[in-house]
Specification:
Belongs to the gluconeogenesis factor family. The chain is α/β, with parallel strands linked by helices and about 325 residues long. The chain contains 13 helices and 14 strands. The chain has 2 domains: about 5-40 and about 135-330, CofD-like domains (Rossmann fold, 3-Layer(aba) Sandwich); about 45-125, no CATH class. Helices cover about 40% and strands about 20% of the residues.
């Protein structure tokens, strides 16, 4: 049991749910703060190195898990580069990521994917707990507004159609017990940032996951994306993101939403427009009318792509978790 304290009391327990690079960026900031982290990560990926290992070895896709492990690890920069290295040549090796192969080897040795993650976490001195959303093999499907159905997480954004809903196969995939225990004990449950239909909803669609989040006494926080994603959320506002989550898993799941309100420079917007992406509009009044507490701030950083400011975002999450814990203790 973690006995570290902040301001004389136990540190806040934060569960993050999602996948993709946005989640990893946020976790790099969050791990610097006095919090206890559990990351629950999607295992619906079927593309690239992850997809090949999933097919060849009958294991859950390791890519999103690997990114989160590296983000939370206390490692030397060179080791991080090694774990993120992708082979360019080699018969059978080309395209594979070394960290993915590391996780595949760990599963082969331990005989269990969750155990493999635990052992890799120990080797990398990971600051927190990393868990798959489910221990079962799942496939993501999307039903489009024209009635067609697309199979596979990697294929959904490529279809060029508007998504009506997504679902998992098998539909009765269950969370692992450790994930449910972490959610029950959390002071804050953070959903996102990440691709709405292919990184966030695959976690919440695991049977029992959304129900556990809804039943938790912790504050549920949704981190809305900065930009829309072509093939997934074209034209979506912040409210549209929230509405899609509630349409899939029921109302009253999210009580707080964190939004970026800073408009990127015109040159950056033009760069994204050429790829079919636009800024997610922060329609605050609609969110408030839906019963959400809204925290809006300037939250973007730009290097080669737009990302959330991990340090500022993490401090907002910590503040919300501390406020919740203080209110619960005083009540």
């Amino acid at each position: 049991m973690n006995k570290r304290k902040i301001n004389g009391g136990p540190i806040p327990r934060i569960v993050v749910i999602g996948g993709g690079t946005g989640l990893a960026v946020m976790l790099r900031g969050l791990k610097q703060l006095p919090v206890s982290i559990t990351a629950i990560v999607t295992v619906a990926d079927d593309g690239g190195s992850s997809g090949r290992l999933r097919s060849d070895m009958g294991m859950p896709p390791p890519g999103d898990i690997r990114n989160v492990l590296v983000a939370l690890a206390d490692t030397e920069p060179m080791l991080e580069k090694v774990l993120q290295y992708r082979f360019r040549n080699g018969n059978g090796l080309a395209g594979h990521n070394l960290g993915n192969l590391f996780l595949a080897a760990m599963q082969d040795i331990t005989g269990d994917f969750t155990h493999a993650i635990r052992e890799m976490s120990r080797v990398l001195a990971v600051r927190g707990q990393v868990l798959p959303a489910t221990g079962q093999e799942v496939t993501l499907h999307a039903v489009m507004t024209d009635g067609s159905c697309v199979k596979g997480e990697s294929q959904i954004p490529l279809a060029g159609k508007q998504i009506r809903r997504v679902f998992l196969e098998p539909e009765d995939a269950r969370p692992i017990p450790e994930a449910l225990e972490a959610i029950e004990a959390a002071d804050a449950i953070v959903i996102g940032p990440g691709s709405l239909y292919t990184s966030i909803l695959p976690n919440l669609l695991v049977r029992g996951m959304a129900e556990a989040v809804r039943a938790s006494r912790g504050r549920t926080i949704y981190i809305c994306n900065v930009m829309t994603q072509p093939g997934e959320t074209d034209g979506y506002t912040a409210f549209d993101h929230l509405d899609a989550i509630h349409r899939h898993v029921g109302d009253c799941l999210i009580d707080t939403i964190i939004l970026n309100k800073e408009t990127p420079p015109a040159a950056i917007l033009q760069q994204y427009a050429e790829e079919g992406a636009t800024m997610v509009q922060p329609d605050i009044k609609r969110l408030q009318a839906a019963g959400c507490h809204v925290w809006a701030d300037n939250l973007i950083q730009y290097r080669t792509v737009l990302r959330h400011d991990a340090e500022r975002l993490s401090r907002m999450i910590l503040q919300l978790a501390q406020e919740y814990r203080a209110g619960r203790n005083s009540g």
